[in-house]
Amino acid sequence: MLSLEEIQTLAALVAGPVTAPGAPGYAEDTAAFNLAAVYRPDVALGAMNAADVVAGIQWAAARNIPIAVQATGHGANSSIEGGLLINTSRMQDLQIDSVERTARIGAGVKWRSLLAASVPLGLVGLHGSSTDVGVVGYTLGGGLPLLGRAYGFAADHVRSFEIVTPDGVLRHVDAEHEPELFRLLRGGKGNFGIVTSLTCNLLPVDEFYGGGIFFPGTDAANVLSTFNRWWPTLPTKAATSIALLRLPDLEFVPPPLRAQFVVHLRFAYPGPQEEAEALLAPLRMVSSPVMDMVGPMSYLDVDMVHFDPQEPLPYEEAGALLHSFDGDAEAAFLAAAGPDSDCPLILIELRPLGGALSLGGVGTDAVSGRDAAFSLLAIGLTAPPIATATTAAIRSLLQAMAPYSTGRTLVNFHGTPGDATDRARAWSPQAYEELAAAKSRWDPANLLRFGHTIRTEAVQGPERADRPAPAPPAGLS
H-helix or E-strand containing 321? Predict the structure, then answer.
């Protein structure tokens, strides 16, 4: 437990608010998007700028106090107890160079804010399924973009980072300055410090056609089989995924979909309407939709493609990377989660990879998934009375898909990190070995131990940060 004097010392060093449990502002600065992940640090710092982050890390390092960081809270998968939480959501610096097609992005900036500034210039960044997510945390995990098959991972387009390392030094990191750290930050998540800003490429997008089609869940087998034959015929410019949704009767769900089991086809095409409609036609004819929301749209409405929730919810998630998804995999998938199952999960997504996502290789960065064919993601609500059923259903689904798994995960979709063996599944063996060695050099005291970080020998006994995660099913270890 920190003394009042120690907390006052930190407050005197920074411009941003410093709060302890029960103080005004503490709940807001420690709240995660995932309401099932409860953060209870000893003290929270609302950093206003990089200088605040430097001061916070130096203060914590001098006292050997572990450090957590969050901006939007979308990366929260496990509860934490104790330590210092540095909230970077106030760091909203955003500078766009439309000539160079780059953006310098502060640690608290959401993709939505970047797009609001860049889309009028005809430029976009490589965001994921929701623009409510923070740019920095998403990109540190590699970042699986909506248009990833065309352009690669978000981390592929980073030019530089500004990062405060655990020694309390603010560093500029790029391919020429600290090249090893630059390489491992791209996909290595939060192992080496707190990124205060990054600079990345922006890409030109003019016309955009996209959205989602919701088919009856009873047609899942036909829709899935047709999807599996159709998507390989698409150009890499076209983005698609498919999900089984068991939607709750809640306000964020459109009335026709509430309390319904549906198959959600997602489609996005940065090009003319005529081309997009011709590509989508075979799937439009496969079944009678409950809702068809695909059409020409402003890129500012891109959240309509995946239709992710915009308000915090309590949930559990887990993912896997698949090397294939053939007819036998379809049958196993539907047996575990289809219309004849009792699966309670709100979302089970299958997203084709490949294309530009497969470019690069071992030793170029720490991004996982370049050798995979699909990303599988399962999400279930953890509110009563289905919390226990959610955990069991996720395990059952992963077990059913284990014969088709690479044994690896995307770190952003990994779910609750377990022991060292489980955490290592988010990277290739070589990348993990390099990350672990660099972690020991850059963070020998293991100050950054919360979330999906690599454990070092400096930690004695169980971490205060993590609730135990179940061991992965057989075939995923």
Answer: strand 315-322
* Residue carrying structure tokens 């970047």: 114
Confidence band for 457, pLDDT divided at 50, 70 and 90: low
Predicted confidence at residue 40, as pLDDT, reads: 97
Q: What are phi and psi of 281, to 5 degrees?
A: -50, -45
Q: Could you give the CA distance from residue 47 to residue 39 in angstroms, rounded to a whole number?
A: 17
Query: CA 295 to CA 273: how far, in whole Å?
Result: 8
Of the candidates 361, 382, 205, the one whose C-alpha atom is nearest the C-alpha of residue 297 is 205
Q: What's the CA angle centered on 97, arms 356 and 236, to 5 degrees?
A: 15
Q: 395, 473 in Cβ contact below 8 A?
A: yes
Helices (H) and strands (E) in the chain, counts: 13, 21
Task: Report the mean per-residue pLDDT for the chain.
Answer: 94
CB-based contacts of 5, cutoff 8 Å, min separation 6? none
CA–CA separation, 171 vs 275, rounded Å?
Answer: 46
CA dist 417 and 373 (Å) reads 23
**Rounded CA gap, 169 and 371, in Å?**
36
Residue 50 and residue 7: Cα distance in Å, rounded? 19
* pLDDT tens column, 116-151: 999 999 999 999 999 999 999 999 999 999 999 999
Antiparallel, parallel or unpaired: β 261-269 and 239-246: antiparallel
In angstroms, rounded to a whole number, what is the distance separating the alpha carbons of residues 85 and 68?
5
Query: Would you state the pLDDT for residue 333?
Result: 98
Q: Which two tokens stand for residue 6?
A: 């120690």
The sign of the CA dihedral 43, 45, 50, 55 is negative
H helix runs in 306-386, sequence order: 327-337
In 3D, which of 149, 151, 122, 116 has the Cα closest to residue 135? 116
